[in-house]
Structures are given as structure tokens and as C-alpha cells.
Amino acid sequence: MTRMRLLCTVLLACLLLTSCSQSESSVQHAAGWEATGEIELSGILGETGEEFTTTWVGLEEKIAISNNPFYAGEQQKYMWLLWGEKEELVHKDFTVTATSEEGEEMTLVESRLGGENWGATASFPSSIALPSAGLWKLDAYVDGSLFSTIVVPVTEK
What we know:
With 157 residues, this protein is an alpha+beta fold. The chain is built from two helices and ten strands; from the N terminus they run αβββββαβββββ. The chain has helices at 2-31, 86-89; strands at residues 38-44, 51-59, 63-66, 70-71, 76-82, 93-100, 105-112, 122-128, 134-142, 145-155. A five-stranded antiparallel beta sheet has the order 1-2-3-5-8, with no helix packed on it. The protein has a five-stranded mixed beta sheet with strand order 4-10-9-6-7, with no helix packed on it. The radius of gyration is 22 Å and the shape is globular.
């Protein structure tokens, strides 16, 4: 009788653990989030005139953010670049909201876009800190309308 009770308890525990791990992975996959890829931008060194390339995170000819790693709870500087029509971007309201995989939300940037930089139509320097590790979705808004989204991984340092 004791063996039977032990066997039932073990089977029930296995069933519960399997159900929990399946539902957790379903939530992660349901979001469908993947870190945004890298793009290369070219520049010219002022003194020597030499061309060089640097890597950014973003979508070609749409939006990019400097490729600094994100560490949980650590504030760092990031440059935002946006491409499009000058009249629709430069000096317009720029807001970036962040959402974690767990649903935590916050506003990271509320300002106005500046002019050209790195060949992009508009730019904005920012200082950002994301509080926890995992994937974070950064939604960039121009004059209140969603312009584009970047997903970045945040790690513990």
C-alpha cells in the first residue's frame, strides 16, 4: 500500500512538473519575440578620411540603436537612429516604451528627435537602464504613432 501511494505521488508530481514546463515554454513562444539582428553602418574618419564600419542593432533603413550590451539595472548611453522623410521625423516628439517578456512596462525616452547622424534622417542620444534580465521589446513612437520595434536581450553582469 505504501509503495502504491509513493508511486502515485511520484507520477502526479511528474505530471504537474511536465504541465508547468510546457505552459511556460508556450508563453515564451506565444510572444514570438526574437532579438533584433545587427546592421552595419559606414562612416568616415574626419582626420584621415578613411572609411570604417560599425555594428548597430536594428532594421536596415528604418531604425537602429547603438550596439552596446544591455545589463540588468545598469544605465548606459545609446544613440537612436531613424530613417524616413525629414519632415516626418526631425524635431518630432520621440517616445520609447519598454516591455519585458514578463509584462513589465516602462517609458525610457520622452523627447524630440534631432537631425541627421550616421546617414540616418533623425537621431537621439539616450541613457537607458532596463531593470531585469531577459528579452525586452522597445517600441519607438514618433508623434504618438508606433514607428518601429526593436527587441534586445538584457543580461546580468
